[in-house]
Amino acid sequence: MIDFPKVLRSFRFAGQGILDLFRFENNAKVHLLVAILVIGAGVVLSLNPVEWAIILTQIGLVWAAEAFNTAIEKLCDFVSPGLHPQIKAIKDLSSGAVLILTIVAVLVGLIIFGGHLLMLFFP
Fold first, then answer.
1. Can you state the percent helix, strand and coil of the chain, rounding each to 5?
2. Cβ-count burial of 62 within 10 angstroms (0-12 exposed, 13-18 middle, 19+ buried)?
3. Where along the chain is a divalent metal cation bound (predicted)?
4. How distant is the alpha carbon of residue 22 from its chain centre?
5. What is the pLDDT of residue 108?
6. How many domains does the chain have?
């Protein structure tokens, strides 16, 4: 049997984590601002449903990567508050993963939006 109060409590904790991510993490705020701009551009350019699915997936992946990166960095800071070369390497790898995903998301955006912009300026 499913313990619905426990499930609801888990969703509440997850929601708090999302709120904290965007409230306290500067990079997440940047990603949020860019996502709003991208969604606005998608509305203006009338993306089709498949393009929306791809764009929204990219936005979600970048946000999730940023959340994982933040969690890893906070855990590293808790475990080793001082400077440690291994902790630095872990943090660099974690933030590098976000950067890789962000670069891919930008490339996907260029492919999708580029086609629309070409059609807009060169019908």
1. 90, 0, 10
2. buried
3. 25, 73
4. 10
5. 98
6. 1
Q: Judge whether 66 counts as a catalytic residue.
A: yes
Label residue 31 by pLDDT band (50, 70, 90). Answer: very high
Question: 51 labelled as ligand-binding?
Answer: no
Is 92 marked within a binding site?
yes
Domain span including residue 45: 4-121
Backbone angles phi, psi at 47, to 5 degrees: -60, 150
pLDDT digits (tens, 9 = 90+) for 78-113: 999 999 999 999 999 999 999 999 999 999 999 999
- Kindly compute the dihedral angle of the four CA atoms of residues 41, 47, 53, 59, in this order, to the nearest 10 degrees: -10
**Which residue of the set 35, 66, 94, 101 is catalytic?**
66
Q: Is 91 annotated as a binding residue?
A: yes
Q: What is the reported pLDDT for 119? A: 87
Residue 19: give its domain's CATH number: 1.10.287.3610
Residues 36-52: pLDDT tens digits?
Answer: 999 999 999 999 999 99
Residues counted in the chain = 123
The dihedral through the CA atoms of 50, 113, 47, 52 has a sign that is positive
